[in-house]
Design goal:
By secondary structure, the chain is α+β, with helices and mostly antiparallel strands. It has six helices and four strands, in the order ααβαβαβααβ. Bound molecules: flavin mononucleotide.
Length: 161
């Protein structure tokens, strides 16, 4: 897909088919995360956790029964907010790649709130103690097909000088 078409087709998917995502597609999405810009990469590079195991997915809240979730966790940052911003860049890259592959997806913050508190599950997922889950992407075949659903029009307020 052309970039503009991907941008116009990306939207939050909250209803998924009960169908696994092909491993090659998941690998492509995960690889796209590595192309994201990162602040303070030597100190604040995020780690990813891919969850497709149904028993573990069932322990995650607010994932809309998606068949795959990629959690983005960051180490403590010496500058406020860098971890959150890095996680956002990574999730958005993966979201655009998932859209390009025809997969429904959604940026999730809510799921990380529960996970931050659930130290047992965090440990089970191999997320180091000093890493904080900050954002996630749920991915799967949506009930609706991916298609252009937006228009290329400015919505955000802008002040020009
Ligand atoms: C930082 C961030 C956190 C979000 N967290 C959640 C979430 O926890 N649960 C949810 O259903 N949607 C979440 N969303 C999705 C937004 O609700 C959605 O992107 C917004 O309503 C715009 O809709 P669109 O993605 O279809 O364009 C989040 C989006 C962003 C950017």
């Amino acid at each position: 897909m052309e970039l503009e078409k991907v941008l116009l087709s990306r939207k939050s998917c909250r209803a998924y088919q009960d169908k696994a995502v092909e491993a090659e597609k998941l690998e492509k999405i995960i690889t796209s995360a590595s192309l994201a810009p990162l602040g303070l990469p030597k100190m604040c590079t995020p780690m990813l956790t891919l969850v497709t195991d149904k028993a573990i997915l069932a322990q995650l809240n607010g994932i809309y029964d998606a068949p795959a979730v990629i959690i983005v966790s960051c180490p403590p940052s010496p500058a406020p907010g860098i971890g959150d911003q890095n996680a956002a860049c990574v999730v958005e890259m993966m979201s655009l790649m998932a859209t390009d592959l025809g997969l429904g997806n959604i940026y999730l913050y809510g799921v990380t709130v529960g996970l931050q508190k659930d130290t047992e599950l965090k440990a089970k997922l191999g997320i180091p103690e000093n890493f904080t889950p900050l954002a996630a992407l749920a991915v799967g075949y949506g009930v609706e097909d991916v298609a252009v659903c937006k228009e290329f029009a400015p919505k955000l307020e802008i002040t020009r000088f």
